[in-house]
Structure formats: C-alpha cells, structure tokens
Design goal:
It is built from five helices and no strands. The chain has 120 residues and is an all-alpha fold. It has two domains: 40 residues; 79 residues, Orthogonal Bundle (434 Repressor (Amino-terminal Domain)), CATH 1.10.260.40. It starts with a helix and ends in a 13-residue tail after the last helix.
Length: 120
C-alpha cells in the first residue's frame, strides 16, 4: 500500500468514526427531544429493549476505543472472533441480542447497573 493510499484510508476511518459519533449524539438528542415534547406514544417493549441494547453497545465501543484496542485484541478480550468485533464497532445492533451484549460487557470487565423506575 502506498503512503498516499494509507493516508487516504486513515482519513476515511477518521471521518467514519466522527460520523458514527455524530449519529450517536443525534440519536440521543432526538430521543430527548421527543421525550421532552411528549409528541409520541409511549415506547413499545421492542423500542425500550433496542434502547437498552444501544446503550450497552455504545459502552462496549467506548471501552474498546478508550483502551485503543484493534479488533483482534478486542476479540481476544471479549472471547469472540474478529468479525464479531467488526460488527460491534460498526454499530450493527440488529446482530446482537441484549443478552449477548451484556455477556460481552462482563467479558470486558465491565458491570451493568440497572435502574428501574415507575413509568410516567
């Protein structure tokens, strides 16, 4: 790979990570706005489950990024194969159950804190 191609690949990866973070922030802002204005019906069980899954997935991604792990070391840490980490880092939430994500959190040495409150 030439130096120019390598530089372009690094620039693309940097832009991709920024786009993923912007998407996460936009999703959080949108969810907060909808909840604040009350213009939606109460979330379905599936939507609540997906929200929990997204939170857990984001925590895993952040942990891997904080430790500056590439996918192969991250896979070793989590006890999975590298393609699974690739799917995780790409945010492919539909490929992960909440149980799997919680198990991956535990493998990473993180714990889950669950907060239960009365519905509004």
């Amino acid at each position: 790979m030439s130096a120019e191609t390598h530089d372009k690949a690094l620039a693309f990866l940097g832009a991709f990570k920024l786009a993923i973070e912007a998407e996460r922030q936009a999703q959080a802002m949108y969810s907060g706005l909808i909840e604040f204005t009350g213009f939606c019906s109460p979330p379905s069980d599936q939507a609540r489950s997906r929200s929990a899954s997204i939170s857990v997935m984001n925590a895993l991604i952040a942990h891997i990024e904080r430790r500056k792990l590439s996918q192969v070391p991250a896979a070793r840490l989590l006890g999975v194969r590298q393609p699974r980490v690739s799917n995780l880092m790409a945010g492919k939430i539909h490929l992960f159950s909440i149980d799997t994500l919680v198990n991956l959190l535990a493998a990473a040495g993180l714990r889950v804190a669950l907060r239960v409150s009365k519905a509004a």
